[in-house]
Specification:
Blueprint (H helix, E strand, L loop, with lengths): L1 H20 L3 H11 L6 E2 L1 H17 L10 H4 L5 E10 L4 H9 L2 H7 L4 E10 L6 E11 L16 E2 L16 E2 L2 E2 L1
Parallel strand pairs: 1-3
Antiparallel strand pairs: 2-4, 3-4, 5-6, 6-7
Length: 184
């Protein structure tokens, strides 16, 4: 009985080992980036959503295009990133193979190594036939700071100064108002 239990446990461990050893897409990208002197990236829910919308739209239209949902700059705006890039692909079932394709392409490789990137979103979707997988990856960094909840972002203060003489009229004949050192 103990032998059977031991064999079952050993079989389970052997079958589970590849799954436990598999890296996530963000870890695979981070490994590649670290080898090339760039920092790690972490999954980001907003970027995941943007990538998923792109992958689904490409799959629905069977069209590999960065413009399928409109300009990238508008699609990535909700991420509030200072810089961002997108890689798309189709054909491979696994992210590992898709990443390999991107690494072998100079433009995609450049996007993977986006300087100071810290966040990534990755998604895939199959076309209606279920035969073609579409992939989208959005990588971003240099984030703008978000205003705290309940507090308005402060507007810059503009000084407006009006100098008057003791008589009540503006000093000098030409200046009625001085704004930031300009005589108006």
């Amino acid at each position: 009985m103990l032998r059977i239990a031991g064999r079952v446990a050993a079989s389970f461990l052997l079958l589970a080992a590849p799954a436990m050893a598999a890296e996530s897409p963000a870890e695979m990208i981070s490994s590649f980036r670290l080898k090339h002197g760039e920092p790690r990236v972490a999954r980001d829910a907003t970027l995941d959503r943007i990538a998923l919308e792109q992958a689904r739209a490409m799959a629905a239209r069977n069209d590999l295009s960065h413009e399928v949902l409109g300009p990238f700059i508008k699609r990535v705006a909700p991420a509030r990133a200072g810089r961002a890039a997108e890689n798309i692909a189709y054909g491979y079932e696994s992210f590992e193979k898709t990443l390999g394709q991107w690494i072998d392409s100079s433009g995609h490789r450049k996007n993977l190594l986006l300087p100071n990137a810290s966040r990534v979103g990755i998604a895939s979707a199959k076309d209606a036939s279920g035969r073609r997988m579409y992939w989208a990856m959005v990588i971003a960094g240099d984030y703008e700071s978000k205003p705290r909840k309940g507090k308005k972002e402060k507007e810059p203060v503009v000084a407006l100064k009006q100098e008057t003489a003791p008589s009540g009229r503006p000093k000098g004949s030409a200046c009625r108002i001085t704004v930031l050192g300009l005589c108006i």
